[in-house]
Amino acid sequence: MNIEFFMPARIVMGPRCIEEHSGLFGRLGSKALIVTGRHSAKLNGSEQDVRAALHKEGIPYALFDKVENNPPVQNARDAAEIARKEKVDFVIGIGGGSPLDAAKVVAILATNRLGDEDLFSGVFPCKPLPVAAVPTTAGTGSEVTQYAIMTWHAIKNKKSVASNEIIPQLAFLDAGYTETLPLNVTVNTALDALSHALEGYMSVRSTELSDLFAAESMKIIGRALHELVDAANVSRAVREKLLYASMLGGIVITHTGTTAVHALGYPLTYFLNIDHGRANGLLLHGYLEFLAADFRERVGKALNYMGCRNLNEFRDLVNALVGQKERISAEEIENFSSLSSSAGQLPLTLKVPSIDDIRLMYKQGFGH
Ligand code: NAP
Ligand code: ZN
After folding, report:
1. Rounded to an integer, what distance in angstroms lies between the CA atom of residue 23 and that of residue 319?
2. Are 241 and 224 in contact (CB under 8 A)?
3. Does the residue 1 lie in any domain?
4. Do 97 and 125 meet the contact criterion of CB atoms below 8 Å apart?
5. What is the CATH number of the domain that holds 26?
6. Which ligand is located closest to the Cα atom of residue 140?
7. Do 329 and 293 fall into the same domain?
8. Is 162 contained in some domain?
9. Using CA atoms, how far apart are residues 192 and 53, in angstroms rounded to an integer?
10. Same domain, yes or no, for 200 and 336?
């Protein structure tokens, strides 16, 4: 049995956990940069709770509240300028995956002057600043991962900065912040979290230990997704379970990486502006069908964890959740297939899809 397991993030979960554990911020540094999106952190109370905690601990801070969805590198560069000017020594990301990932890149760029190529190399001359993360979506698991996914216009795609040095040292999980999420974002982000657990389970890097986390995550999200079909609203209990399960999914991909689904999903987000989690969700059934030909037993176990008796039941569940699908042309399928066929995640899939397999997954995803 070959296992290596590394998880430096201190994970604190529970209602009002920031208030109760405010003292932990002081272990990261003496002046913070808070990094958020434009609106949600102000509306769901998370930014106010972090401000109050820092105030209580006597820690001064600056604020960058302009992170865009699927942040381009320049967005993080703008925030890093403020980090340098204000001489902060740690960064607190609050929000969905976009602000959390931007916070990680700010932590790198605050101590390193790097061109884009060097940033994406994942090797830095100076140690990045410590990062704390407060997720307000239940999807990316970024609060525990070494990845920061940025939009890189030079390659017309999204790309991951990966380094163990940007794994947040502190993650505060309070499901109360996710209560303001609209139903469609709740569903899309849950599909992202499911994708992490499932892809990690189908990764060449999976181990007995990562499978434990993946199975638990798939069980919880599978149950929640069945409840979300036709739901008018989402209970607090379900929100808490989703936040927990998305963190588990983050721990999975920290060890396994993502695979073909994420590789194929990025062009859908870059070119068609389809939400990250939704893009993955659209591709999941085709991916499992592709893998089932050679890994029937493993796919069967995954379906069982997700509460589905077979692939058709899984397809019907996802279709019910995603509703009306976007239109995609044959030319776009061709372009995206060639773009994603060289993605770094692809070879981590248990069986590496050929360009024909990739084309088929796109076609199945959009009902072609
Ligand atoms: P997101 O892009 O962070 O946020 C999507 C939208 O949801 C934004 O408009 C945001 O508003 C809003 N929002 C966030 N929290 C909310 C809340 N509690 N209530 C109401 N609205 C809220 O979405 P995401 O799906 O969490 O993150 C996607 C990004 O993460 C992608 O770039 C993806 O590639 C990346 N990702 C990273 C990892 C990793 O390991 N690092 C893994 C998977 C995906 P505001 O802008 O106003 O905040
Ligand atoms: Zn993802």
Report:
1. 45
2. yes
3. no
4. no
5. 3.40.50.1970
6. 1
7. yes
8. yes
9. 30
10. yes
Which residue has its alpha carbon closest to ligand 1 atom 40? 142
Place of tokens 């050929």: 354
d(CA 332, CA 267): 10
> How many folded domains does the chain comprise?
2
CA of 277 to the centre of ligand 2 (A): 6
Is residue 99 within 8 A of residue 76, CB to CB? The reply is no
Pocket test for ligand 1, best of 69, 166, 191 (most atoms within 8 A of CB): 69
* DSSP state, residue 62: E
pLDDT, one tens digit for every residue, the chain (368 residues): 899 999 999 999 999 999 999 999 999 999 999 999 999 999 999 999 999 999 999 999 999 999 999 999 999 999 999 999 999 999 999 999 999 999 999 999 999 999 999 999 999 999 999 999 999 999 999 999 999 999 999 999 999 999 999 999 999 999 999 999 999 999 999 999 999 999 999 999 999 999 999 999 999 999 999 999 988 899 999 999 999 999 999 999 999 999 999 999 999 999 999 999 999 999 999 999 999 999 999 999 999 999 999 999 999 999 999 999 999 999 999 999 999 999 999 999 999 999 999 999 999 999 87
Kindly report the pTM of this predicted structure.
0.98
Per the CB < 8 A criterion, the answer to whether 101 and 149 are in contact is yes
Distance 55 CA to ligand 2 centre (A): 33
Whether residue 104 sits in one domain with residue 164: yes
What range does the domain containing 36 cover? 10-177
Domain presence at residue 356: yes
- The sign one gets for the Cα dihedral 291, 293, 298, 299 is positive
Cα–Cα distance measured from residue 91 to residue 106, given in angstroms and rounded to the nearest whole number: 8
Query: Which domain-ending residue is among 142, 177, 212?
Result: 177
**Are the CB atoms for 201 and 214 separated by under 8 Å?**
yes
**DSSP readout, 110-134?**
TT----HHHHHHT--SSPPPPEEEE
129, 145, 177: which is the final residue of a domain?
177
